[in-house]
Specification:
Layout: E1 16-20, H1 22-26, H2 37-49, H3 58-66, E2 70-74, H4 82-85, E3 100-102, E4 116-120, H5 126-138, H6 146-156, H7 164-177, H8 188-204, H9 216-231, E5 240-241, H10 242-248, H11 254-264, E6 268-271, E7 277-280, H12 283-298, H13 302-312, H14 321-333, H15 335-338, H16 342-354, E8 364-368
Parallel strand pairs: 1-2, 2-3, 4-8
Antiparallel strand pairs: 5-7, 6-7
Helix pairs in contact: 5-7, 7-8, 8-12, 9-12, 12-14, 14-16
Length: 370
């Protein structure tokens, strides 16, 4: 929609971006008379965007798609279930997409497609220091011991390259702590919990805006429960039925507590045309919270862990790598409290080490800073 032609994806004309999430496609699968669920999802989304009462005619819709006037953005491809994935085949004769972006956390592509890849820049060493310095400047803050802070963050992530998202979470903690003698998180799970508690504390200071306030323990436990329900069937961040989430929240007034996570903290959101499903707004947060929930429930129960790994083997390693890595980090962070069997820890370590051997090499790849 950029007016300056030099800044557009297509210099010749404007393009209307249409975001399509898995839930929108899923609702069209199996509906009588609907042969192309993806096209139908685009039609309904486009109808909402232009505030049109009548459905967009087939001829006009296909014309807009073929001419690249509509930029279709298919979100969370890596989190889609197989029935939904099979509908995303943009090079087929029945799907006339000429301008298409697919977002995915792993290098997976729709069948029969050739794609160029843009990847978030992985930060490490001098790149991490530079990013932290630039971000602090953007917040009008200054960190005297920037190299020390970057070194501490690299220790937390076990010297793995990280995305800007995780670096930002840590810097926000630095800013919050300031010069106070408060201990910074030493593991990624602790960082996630600390960020959640910081967010909830900020809500407490908005008593004139928020009618209900929940303590940190309740918020963290509820968030972990909801996160697990959103991952338990696919081991990938997904949406869960609202009624299932309400049933899983033990205690009083689950409706208000789920609404608190959505309306006050905004870590989850309602999705789907019928507004009947809920998902996390940040996938890494969902994975780490679900990982914490799992180890707190399974602890040293070898049978439960073996069943979990058996189910994990039914998925491709790359598709669930984020969750498996999160569980591994959670095991190390909570080893003293949960006493996870050593054999399970070894299994998790082996699985995360082997993930890259299953990766899909893109035709071309370019890294970008996000």
């Amino acid at each position: 929609m950029e007016r300056d032609s030099k800044k557009r994806l297509c210099a010749k004309h404007l393009m209307l971006p249409v975001l399509i999430e898995p839930e929108l496609i899923e609702q069209e699968i199996g509906v009588e008379g609907i042969k192309e669920p993806l096209v139908e999802a685009v039609r309904k989304r486009l109808q909402d965007l232009v505030n049109e009462q009548e459905p967009i005619p087939d001829q006009l819709l296909h014309y807009l798609l073929k001419r690249g006037r509509v930029l279709v953005i298919i979100d969370r491809f890596s989190e889609m279930r197989d029935p939904i994935r099979k509908t995303v085949v943009p090079n087929s004769k029945t799907n006339p997409f000429n301008a298409l972006i697919v977002t995915s956390r792993t290098r997976e592509t729709p069948e029969k497609t050739t794609m160029d890849w843009l990847e978030p820049l992985q930060l490490k060493g001098s790149e991490l220091v530079r990013f932290m310095e630039d971000y602090l400047k953007s917040q009008n803050k200054k960190e005297e011991s920037l190299l020390e802070a970057a070194s501490q963050l690299e220790k937390i992530v076990d010297n793995r390259p990280i995305t800007a998202f995780l670096a930002k979470l840590y810097i926000d903690q630095l800013i919050t702590v300031g010069n106070r003698s408060v201990q910074l998180p030493k593991t990624i799970p602790d960082l996630m919990i600390s960020c959640l508690e910081r967010l909830n504390t900020e809500i407490a200071h908005q008593s004139d805006v928020v009618e209900v306030y929940l303590d940190n323990n309740t918020v963290c436990q509820d968030a972990k429960t909801v996160a697990w329900e959103c991952l338990r069937y696919t081991y990938r961040p997904n949406s869960a039925k609202r009624e299932v989430l309400l049933a899983s929240l033990a205690g009083d007034d689950p409706v208000s507590r789920l609404n608190y996570l959505e309306k006050s903290l905004r870590i989850v959101e309602t999705v789907g045309e019928e507004q009947s499903r809920v998902r996390f707004t940040l996938d890494p947060l969902a994975e780490y919270l679900a990982g914490l929930y799992l180890i707190e429930q399974y602890k040293n129960n070898l049978t439960l862990w073996q069943d979990f790994l058996k189910t994990a083997d039914t998925f491709t390693p790359e598709a669930i790598q984020g969750f498996i890595l999160a569980i591994q980090d959670c095991c190390f962070a909570r080893s003293a409290q949960t006493q996870i069997p050593e054999s399970i820890v070894r299994e998790l370590r082996q699985r995360t080490a082997l993930v890259n051997t299953f990766g899909i090499e893109p035709k071309s790849s370019q890294q970008i800073t996000v």
